[in-house]
Design goal:
This protein is mainly α. It is built from 27 helices and no strands. α5 packs antiparallel against α15, α9 packs across α22 and α23 runs antiparallel to α26. It is elongated, with a radius of gyration of 29 Å.
Length: 643
């Protein structure tokens, strides 16, 4: 048995161990460089390396960039708070609480590493404002030292990581997208031949689940370069077009057209074979022409071809046919969790104020460590599906880190005869963190072990501090996840199910807002893009929360169908082309849809009447409105979840 096999049997993951060990070596190097430069807290440079480490160059570069930007902003805020407060903890706590609340709100509204940078701005201010409150006269030099220490860590992580980590691989995501496109075209061909509706519905739900899974992991693939970001944006456009095609296919499935179906089967075969030529796209173009411009199916097929070509151009691939602006009819509009952002901001602000009050009243010397830890717990983890569940692992990791720091300080550092030796004797504890990162049992606790063990250690010589004071600081740090756990359970309790319910509320209320806004059809691209992305997010939360996947997916598709009908009715009313009876029915349906969350049955009946009134003069719109009424009637329970 090889050493690798033995390690595997013991529960260690060798690829993860290699990555963690490289990161640990970079952390040791950052610690040494920061010490050579005479920075006050060189261990923070090592902490930064652990925080900035990423598996690909693009992610490493982008996270390092936003960590640097977030640090500079946070340090500036921290310096300002200390200068204004003059060392008085009362205004300091109030100002810091408000600042962190704002940063948490921004972090929950933004995405990817931009979100990370926003929240880092919050707790970077804590690092400046809380850990040297007794010397407000030195605040500028303190802020400069903190910023320089972080920059050493970022640059070290970039230098080492760039040499040892691979570039991001685009092939996997492109392959998944190609296979989804092939499945979608196959299903559409079956529908056009009059295939089984029930079977198609199950397959379409599975397709949407795969599309939602692709969307969720796209952001990291866009990190590091403008071309990667453009490719991800183009891929999201393809996903958006695929939803439109799926909806158009559900409507077109009531008819039969074998000629279009044959062309779609040929295109699907080309995508399945990994054909990178324009052959499959030419078949899609031909199918779009056969379906006809101005029809839902024809427009969706033409836009799909344009979107795929745009994606290939973004990847640097050659396309034979010029890319026009057709794919721009499906702009990328991402979901913003305004409800979650507001709740996270209130939760973080309240926690900081309450613990800050404890500090002001008791004068506990270790309270700043608790506030610092809490500023991290209530920011970064507020974007997790179930932060209260994560706090258990965070607490365990911090306990391990506290024991590690105490062991290093009182069992190992006493053997040092110089400050250099103190720094060198710290490195085995940093390298040991790689074992935590590579074992399946300790992986959830590894990051907190690495960070807390370094946070509590201050490599100076002669050694300072006694056991009781360091133990008090360790207890304060470890209390942070305990307080955060209580907060996440009591103040706007948060888990995947709660996030799902919030999304359902936002989607259904969006329909009501569309019905109330007389000019909604003039902003149809924004409405549609946002609803599409919320559908993806809703499906993912349904999967993680254990909710009924079928009901949630069907409800989301019903929202989209009703949304299309609202836009159609508003266009017709504005055009003045309706008869008096049809116009009254359309306006009555729009009025009912303003209360669809509380009266979905009445809204469905009003839509059905409007569809009937439109059947003679506007058959296309009539079919769309009637289909929306049917979908709404079948998903009454879903709509009422937003009531």
């Amino acid at each position: 048995m090889t050493p690798g096999q033995r390690m595997g049997r013991l529960g260690f993951d060798l690829p993860r161990l290699n990555f963690a060990f490289r990161t640990a070596v970079a952390a040791c190097l950052a610690l040494f460089i920061a010490w050579l430069l005479g920075l006050e807290h060189p261990q923070w440079a090592a902490m930064t390396v652990w925080a900035a480490a990423q598996p690909t160059r693009g992610q490493l570069l982008e996270k390092g960039l936003f960590r640097a930007v977030g640090t500079v902003i946070g340090v500036a805020a921290g310096v300002g708070l200390v200068a204004v407060s003059g060392g008085d903890p009362r205004p300091l706590v109030i100002g810091l609480s408000v600042w962190i609340g704002l940063c948490v709100a921004a972090g929950n509204l933004l995405r990817g590493y931009v979100s990370y940078g926003a929240m880092l701005s919050g707790y970077s201010a804590s690092m400046v404002a809380l850990l040297d409150t007794g010397h407000p006269d030195h605040v500028l030099s303190l802020g400069a030292d903190r910023a320089a220490t972080i920059m050493v860590g970022v640059l070290t992580a970039l230098a080492v990581g760039w040499l040892l980590t691979p570039a991001a691989a685009e092939n996997e995501m492109t392959g998944r997208m190609r296979r989804v496109t092939a499945r979608l075209l196959r299903d559409l061909a079956i529908a056009l031949r009059g295939g089984n509706i029930t079977t198609l519905g199950d397959e379409q739900r599975a397709l949407l689940a795969e599309m939602a899974a692709i969307d969720e992991v796209l952001d990291p693939h866009g990190a590091g370069s403008f071309r990667s970001r453009q490719a991800v944006r183009a891929m999201r456009t393809v996903l958006s077009v695929q939803i439109s095609l799926l909806l158009a296919g559900r409507r077109a499935g009531h008819g039969r057209d074998g000629g279009i179906a044959d062309l779609l089967d040929e295109a699907a075969a080309g995508f399945e074979a990994g054909n990178g030529s324009d052959g499959p796209l030419a078949r899609i173009d031909a199918a779009a022409a056969l379906a006809g411009r101005g029809t839902d199916l024809g427009d969706a097929l033409q836009t799909l071809g344009e979107a795929i070509r745009a994606h290939r151009v973004a990847l640097g691939q050659h396309v034979e046919k010029a890319v026009h602006a057709g794919h721009a009819s499906h702009p990328v509009v991402l979901h913003r969790d305004w409800i979650g952002a507001r709740q996270a901001s209130i939760r973080a602000t309240l926690c900081m104020l309450l613990v800050g009050l404890l500090w002001v009243v008791t004068g506990w010397e270790a309270a700043p460590f608790l506030l610092l830890g809490l500023s991290i717990m209530t920011t970064i983890f507020s974007t997790f599906d179930n932060p209260a569940h994560m706090m258990r692992f965070v607490l365990l990791g911090q306990v391990f880190g506290a024991f590690g720091a105490l062991a290093c300080r009182f069992l190992v550092w006493p053997f040092a005869g110089s400050e250099l030796q103190v720094v060198l004797l710290t490195m085995p504890f940093i390298l040991g963190a790689s074992l935590f990162f590579s074992h399946r049992r300790t992986l959830p606790t590894a990051f907190d072990y690495a960070m807390v063990s370094l946070l509590l250690l201050h490599p100076t010589y002669p050694l300072t501090g006694d056991f009781s004071s360091m133990l008090s600081g360790a207890i304060a740090v470890v209390l942070a996840p305990v307080v955060a756990l209580v907060a996440y359970r009591l103040i706007f309790p948060l888990n995947a199910g709660k996030r799902l319910e919030a999304l359902i509320v936002m989607m259904v209320h969006e329909l009501q807002d569309m019905a109330r806004a007389e000019d909604a059809s003039q902003h149809r691209l924004t409405w549609r893009g946002r609803l599409y992305h919320r559908l993806f997010r809703m499906i993912r939360f349904a999967e993680r929360s254990g909710d009924t996947h079928r009901d949630v997916t069907d409800g989301g598709l019903a929202v989209l169908s009703v949304g299309y009908s609202i836009l159609s009715l508003q266009d017709l009313v504005r055009s003045g082309a309706l008869s008096d009876g049809a116009e009254r029915a359309a306006k009555a349906a729009l009025e009912r849809l303003k209360r669809v969350s509380s009266e979905p049955e009445k809204a469905a009946a009003a839509l059905a009447r409007a569809g009937g009134r439109l059947s003679t003069a506007h058959p296309r719109e009539s079919a769309s409105v009637a289909g929306a009424a049917e979908a709404l009637r079948a998903n009454v329970a879903f709509m009422k979840r937003a009531g």
